[in-house]
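2024-03-11 09:14:02 DEBUG pipeline.ingest accepted 1 chain
2024-03-11 09:14:02 DEBUG pipeline.ingest length=469
2024-03-11 09:14:03 DEBUG pipeline.predict start
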Amino acid sequence: MLKQISRGSFKLFLSGHGMSVKTGKYVTLAAFVGVLVGFVTVAFYWMIHLAKVYVMEDLGHHDFMSMLPKGEIVHPFWTVESLTDPHRWLLVFLPAIGAVLGCLLIRRFARVEHARGTDSAVKAFHRGESISRGVIPVKSVASVLTVGFGGSAGYEGPVTLLGAACGSVVNRAFRLDKRASRILMAAGLAAGIAALFRAPFAGAIFGAEIFYSSSDMEADTIMPSVVASVMSYTIFCCFYGWEPLFDMTPCAFVNGLRLLPYLVLAFVVAFGARFYISVFRGTERWFSVRTWPMWVRVGTGGLVTGMLGFVFPDILGSSYALIQTAFTAGGDSFGRYGTLPAVGFLVFFFVKVIATSFTVGSGGSGGLFAPALACGGALGAATGLFFRDILPTSVGINPGAFALVGMASFLASSIRVPLTSIIMVAEISGNHELLLPTMWACCIAFWLNNGWSLYRSQVHSRESSPLHG
């Protein structure tokens, strides 16, 4: 009998040991993915800023370098002399030129469904498909042409697709099964966000949360995503520094009455997110029914963006300069669009939504995540300035704090990643003292916009996914 018990215990040990070996395999491969994504993101990030310096600043005379947040400044390896004659009128045409060149590149060398960033990665995940390694160089250069030439889009859409492609490359190299393929794709997604935003914890949660519009998650991707995020974040910061993306003065939450203004902010952000989604989807549908060639569509979208950017230059690119302004000055120094700072932030929000919809909705290569951050920060700053003017000074309203919470709740509402949003804004600002109002506003905005999402490929839950159905 003792022999039978010992034999059964030995089998149980082998079973458990096999599970640990399997988990260790995924974690080890995720580390390879993280290293690969880290170096790819380093190269992509440098190319984006190279294009901005030599195209937007030297050619288009758009002075954005002096307005960048501290964590985004990248110095090129060499400098060139700026043009002596003013050529600012080129801002009208630069986004269209970049979008057309990027479109032609993708149409020639990559599959059409891979032209979209995070949406394509999420769709491939649910279908159990892999992403070809050719997407990595093609998508990188196409996105540099679109965003670096002034398109109103973010870097994270291309980076998430590049990360998923890196996961597929590692999976094919080791000839693994489909389960390993989706786990490594999720780890690649997470690693890209972790490096790009210098937010490893948020990136790890993003790799489990992005696939569903509800609160459902992919639990088996969390540990590989954590390892991949740590590796890519470390490699990226070795090149570009360890400081947070934004510089923000610490502002503690010490008055429970402030939860009421933050409740109002959650409603403002929820309706703002619906407006963003509606305009983007409407623009996307309008371009999809046109019988024009694809390069004409993206060129038209880029031309509209360029005309808006000529009047409102802060909407070009990722618009991180405006978020930094909201954090450091509370909006008081933001008077480009009018004498009332709150009105200026609201104007920026509407123009940014339209410009992003035309840049990405027409088929341009760029992301929707970073514009959502900028839009949420603008709405938050405007709401904070409004309450600061009407409430007693004893309440202690800080518009910069409202901008931070607005960013998080806008992401939670439009991208459907509430946990990622709560953690990310703390990591990118270096401010962990606003977790309470951030949790409060994110959960309310997420609940108010149930059924609304910027990403068409997101499904409601695991039961709705073709992968698990």
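2024-03-11 09:14:41 DEBUG pipeline.report Residues 239 and 377 are 28 Å apart (CA to CA).
2024-03-11 09:14:41 DEBUG pipeline.predict end
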